[in-house]
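This is your field. Please look over both lines of this record.
***
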Amino acid sequence: MAQTVMYWEVHYNEYTEVGSMKELRYDAVVIGGGAAGMAAALELETAGFSCAIIEREDHLGGILMQCIHNGFGLHEFSEELTGPEFAERLIDRVTQSKIAVHLNTTVTNFSAETQSADSTASRFQLLCVSPAGVMRIQANALLLAMGCRERNRGNIRIPGSRPAGVFTAGLAQRLVNIEGYIPGKEVVVIGSGDIGLIMARRLSWIGCKVKAVVEIMPYPAGITRNIVQCLHDFDIPLYLSSQTTAIYGNDRVEGIEVTPLENGILVPDKSFRINCDTVLLSVGLVPENELSMAAGVSLNPITNGPLVDSCLMTNIEGVFACGNALHVHDLVDWVCEESRRAGRYAVQWLKGSRSTLQISTKAGTNVRYVNPSQIDPKCENIVYLRSMIVKSDTVLELSLNDSVIRRKKLKHVQPSEMISLKITPDDFKGIDIKDVTSDSVLEFNIR
């Protein structure tokens, strides 16, 4: 794999010393060096703007570096790759560019500076900590690409003591694939998210006994491909509509209690125990949003990521969001697609271009969320949404101010698989664009 640029290598930026603090200046800064951050930064650099990636780990690539299974890149590169292979394609492009890469560097906060109309000062000030010390970075645009994190036991409140042997699925993946440790011998996975499913297969390959996957919902949380390849192919039982109601053990996990649900109600009389020494939690992902919240970025209460307009810009002008920091994607290919657009929108903003008409999107019947939260009816928009139901032969219906403007047949929908939809000015044919105002609402329904 190509060697990544170390944190002290900085290209074509203005550099000054302020006392003992280093101060750097770029046109744009991307926070996060995973697939999203690299894809966005490459768009900015290609357009001729100085750009930096700030990454808290000691390497680029993000979570992809521990995802050694294949299945990545079918859309982005038209071939099947492992996670590190996918990341390497982007890392090679970054290291061959003029993008400044600051590894082992953490952004502790950022703030927007008040500017006058004729000011040439940078709009944003970032305070960063690295092995080289504390530094301040100035930029005119920011892109939030920090990725997401796993929910843990505290988030789902499973009763019981606190024995060793309880891991998130992502941590177990790192232990096995990067550190070379086996977390346990007899494993139960709580939740059927994709990382948990993939780890059920991975642990089976190295000789562990995966005794069950327990899912509280009546349908799997992972994509169909992983259900088949990771569970069915290894005869691993999947208990749907089942809640983990206790974890047993003092020093080490000894087992769990599983209680079925009927019509959403626990049935204690049907509870049963599964003996195990290890529990993996695969109970959902949440966008990394602490830095965003501290800076005053408005968040979507459904996705827990920033609210963005048609240009993927947050409520703070000049701050954009993309990838899993915006909303959790099912495929890294879609992360790259969205992040490239975020980079292009940031380029347009730096050049002084801005959309003049934004109409709100709304999640309607059987739709959990729609992203972005606004679109521009005069331009091409890519919208992502997730279904709340599992159903075949459905219709996605778009309504503008309660009038249906488009219907699209969908072969199958389920909550684990994101729906991507292109919306163009053609969808608004027959509607006088003058009648479309900022108060208009485009609603998405699955019938």
About this structure: The chain has eight helices and 29 strands. Helices lie at 35-46, 83-95, 153-156, 169-179, 194-205, 224-231, 290-294, 332-350.
